[in-house]
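I'd like us to work through together how a protein chain folds, taking it slowly. To get us started, please write out a protein record for me. Go ahead whenever you are ready, and we will take it from there:
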Amino acid sequence: MTPSRASLDLAVRRAATALLGAALALVTWWWIDGGGLGDLGGWASALMSIGRWTGLLASVLLLTQVVLMARVPVLERAFGQDRLAAIHRLVGFSSFTLMLAHVVLVTWGYGDGSALRWPGELWDLTLTYPAMLLADAGFVALVLVVVTSIRAARRRLRYESWHLLHLYGYLGAGLALPHQLWTGQELVSSTSRTVFWWSAWGLTAAAVVTWRVARPVARNLRHRLVVEDVVEEAPGIVSVTVSGRGLDRLPARGGQWLSWRFLGREGWTRANPYSLSAAPDGRHLRITVQDSGDGSGSTATLVRGSRVLVEGPYGRLTARSRHGDRVALIGAGVGSAPLLALAEELSGLLGEGGDVVLLHRDRDAGAFVDDLRRLAARGIRVLTLPGRRRAAGSWLGEAHAGGFSDLAALRHWVGDIAQRDVYVCGPQTWADLVVADLRRAGVPGSHIHAETFGW
């Protein structure tokens, strides 16, 4: 790994953005070329025309949001799962809004622009047009996904329940396919358009099957992971070490996470995302889990020899994204787990020429004691910030009460913070406060690498 990897990832992000923009521009041109602008002269024809356009845009964005969550390696490395999830959410809401507009406007247009005829026209279209019943079922599935993605709804759902409901997005996209390809004239009116849409759908489906299904199955059959040890780090926090075959061929890096299923316990079918808390050594993988309910609460009861299924590794909180040899790591509680693994890997990569500092805020001052000592022995400067947050707007622990600001303390501890790559991991609110101070300290946005716990 060299710092040039960061430039390569930037190029991939730009290329992906340009590709999406080109696809949206292309379907817009097809709409114009098919008389879309000319149809704006009449009320009913304008409704139909704009409805066709919104349908085309919605189709592109629908495929895009599926690809974003297909775990495509080149996108995972370039964006990181946090950023992909945020873009996926934005694209998803946008595609649904455009799809809703498509349904309303086209139906309204078929009803000669009369709002009173809209319900009857929708019923007639559903019963008489090919694949419309499938499309309606797909739309209902996407409504379920959108409703459960609203922040207020997510607060009331367990992660496992939300994740299961979110899988209906694949069903919604799949059920919409026949309607679009059989009745959408802008999709099939020329050979080039037919090739474009069938290729887009085919490649999207292939990405999901390859990276969400085939690769995890192959890796689990190859590595056959089992629980080797379970150790309590602090009250409510345990570390689980797993072993398996040929783990030196698993491309896991310090700072990444995997989705874990521990067989033999209740709820094993539901995957939980946990970060590696120790750098992979080719023989073992270790995670550290805090009891927060659901699957995490039963982690402490795992027994040696239990089979483990994983998906991943994922995430961009790795040495790959750095730009230089000076690094600062800032974590809170169990959020420091991936940073411990990353610090361990960095100490080996950078050697004597590197400069790594780790700031670890530990509310209970009990977790990762042995790990922090080992890192300090390897030349990493470790600063422990004990206690709960000292105030609502502060990311420092209460042990640092005083008249100084968080920013002043950060500059005191790490005087050259603006010249470092900075990795941040912890709860969303806390991480946002840290990132805000990093920006005030002059750290370039491209040098801030943040991963938060949220979904």
Observations:
- The mean pLDDT is 85.
- The chain is about 50% helix and 15% strand.
